[in-house]
Amino acid sequence: MTQFKPQSFDVKGGPQVGRAHLPLLRDALAEAGLDGFVIPHEDEYNNEYLPDCNERLSWATGFTGSAGAAVVLTGKAAVFADGRYTVQVREQVDASIFEIQDLIETPPYDWVGKNAPKGAKIGYDPKLHSPDALDHFHRAARKAGAEMVAVETNPIDTAWQDRPAPPAAQVHPHPIEFAGEDHASKRSRVGEAIAEDGADAAAITAPPSLAWLFNLRGGDVARSPLALGAAILNADGTATLYMDPEKLTDEARSHLGNEVAIRPEAEFAAGLAELKGKAVSVDPAQSSAWVFDRLQAAGATVKRRRDPVALPKAIKNSTEIGGARKAHVRDGAALTRFLHWLDTEAQSGEVNEIEAAIKLAEFRGELTDLKDLSFDTISGFGKNGALPHYRVSEASNLKLARGSLYLVDSGGQYPDGTTDVTRTVPIGEPTAEMRRRFTLVLKGHIALSTARFPRGTSGGQLDTLARLPLWMNGLDYDHGTGHGVGSFLGVHEGPQRIAKAGSSEPLKPGMIVSNEPGYYKEQEYGIRIENLIVVTELAPAGDGDRAMMGFENLTLAPIHRGLIDLDILTREERAWVDAYHADVLAKLGPKLSGETAEWLNAACAPL
C-alpha cells in the first residue's frame, strides 16, 4: 500500500486558541512599539495550503479556514472570512474578543479605516501582502490618522514559542516521461517571452512555477508536491534557484545542470539587490510587497507583469494530457470500488464520515504509484454535505444515516497527473426533491461538458451554462463552477477558471479545468457533480466557417442513476449520460473484477 500522510480528523483551532494567543500577540506588539497588526492567511509563498509553521492566522485566532484575515489593535480585534466559512468562523472564533466580519462586505482595510485610533502605528509583514493590498491599507490608515509600519520580524513569530520548524523535504527531478519537455527548453522559451516584453529577468516566487519551470517536485506543502523557494530567471534562459541546498538531492543538482545556479533561500534578498539597473518582471498578484521593495531599493526597473510561467504551465502538452488520461483511469478504478462499497456496505446507516474517508484513502492507497491525496477528502453527509468546503473532524463526524445524501470530493496525486472528482450518493431512498435538484445540477454539468466555443472565450462566459437549469428553478450555488488543475502539481491552478466573476482568461487547448456545479440546502443536504475536463480543438460545426473548441472528459466514475429524474432530462442529455457511462465501463471494466465489476455493469447500464 502507498504510504502518505493520513488525513487528520483532529479538532483544530477553536475559541480557546484565540483566547490563549491574543494576549501573547499584544505583548509582542507592545514590545515592538506597535498599536496593531494585520494578519493575512497567506504566507510568503502565497500558496493555497500552508506548512504548519506558517499558519499564523490560525495561531492568532483559532480560525482554520483556507482564506481570511485578522486585524489586532490594542483595544479591539476582528476576524474576516468569506461566505464559505460563515458557520466555521463563528464556531472557531471567540466573538467576545474578536469581531467577526464578512471578508467581502467589510474588507480588513475598511475596518482599519474605521477603527484605527488616531496616531496608531499598525504593523504589517511585507512578505505576506501584495503591493496592491497594502495600498488599500495605507490609504485607509491615513484616513484614520494612523500609520502602517513594515516590520522586519513578524511579531507572531516572536510570540509563537512552539512554532513548528520550516519544512525541509527532499527535492527530486520530475522525469521527462511525465513532464514532456526538459527544463532547459522551458527556461529558454519563458526567457524569450521575458525578453519580448522588454525585461532582463523575472523574479519568480510561486512554488508551483518553480516546480514546473525546473521540473522539480518536493514535499514542503501538504497534498501538493512543492518545494518552497524562489528564483530569478534571466531573459537568456539561465537562472538562479534560491532554495535550501540540503533539500536538493545529488540527482536534483545533476538534473539542474550548469545553467542553473543554486543559492540558499536566505540569499534571495541579495540576489534581488544584484539586479540594479535591470528591468525585472514581477507578478503583483503573486509576489509580495517585500520583493517589490527590495527591487526598487536596488535601483531596478520593476515591470508589473503576470508570472511568465503561469500560462505555459496551465497549457498542458501532449505528454501531460496523455498522463492525465492514464491517471484518471487508475484513480477512477479505485473510486469505483469505493462507490460500490457506498452502494452496498455503507447503506447500513452505521458507517460515519471519517470511516468513509479512510475507506476511500485505502482504496487509493492500494495503487502503487499514488504519491499523496491531492487534498483532504471532503466527506460530508446530510447537513455537512451542504457546506461546500466541509472538513470532517471528530467533533463534526456524522453517521451516514438512511434517507439523505452523502457528498464526497476527493483526489490523488500521481506522477502523471492530479485528480479531483466529486460524486453524490443516496444513503437509503432519496426524496423526489433530492432527485429533481440532483438532475438540475446534472443538466448544468452536461451543458458545460458539451459546450462548443470559439477562441478567445473565457470561463466566465461559459459559467452561465452550468447554472441555467438551476436558475430557471430559482436555485444557485455560491462557488465557482471550475478551477484549473496542475499536472502532478496543485489541485487548484490558474490563470483559467470558470466562475461568475474574475475569470476573463481565455480558455486554450490543453488547459485542464474542473466542471463542478452544485446545490446546497442549508442544514439538510448538498449536491455536487465534478469531473475534470481538458480544452480541445474541434472542427467547425455544421456548415460553420469558424474553428471551435470544446472539452474532453478526463474523470471516470459512474454518476448515481438512483438520483436521476429521467422526466426532466432531454433526449440529448440522456444520450450524454449513456455515452459517458459506456466510456466509464469500457475503460474501468477491465481493471475491476467480482462484485465490483458486476455493480459497475449495472451502474453504467443505459438509462
UniProtKB/TrEMBL annotation:
Record domain Creatinase N-terminal: where: 25-150
Protein name (record): Aminopeptidase P family protein
Catalytic activity, EC: 3.4.11.-
GO molecular function: aminopeptidase activity
Residue ranges occupied by any Peptidase M24 C-terminal domain in the UniProt entry: 548-607
Keyword tags: Aminopeptidase, Hydrolase, Metal-binding, Protease
Assigned protein family: Belongs to the peptidase M24B family.
Positions of the Peptidase M24 domain: 324-537
CDD domains named in the record: APP (cd01085)
Biological classification of the source: Bacteria, Pseudomonadati, Pseudomonadota, Alphaproteobacteria, Maricaulales
Taxonomic source organism: Hyphobacterium marinum
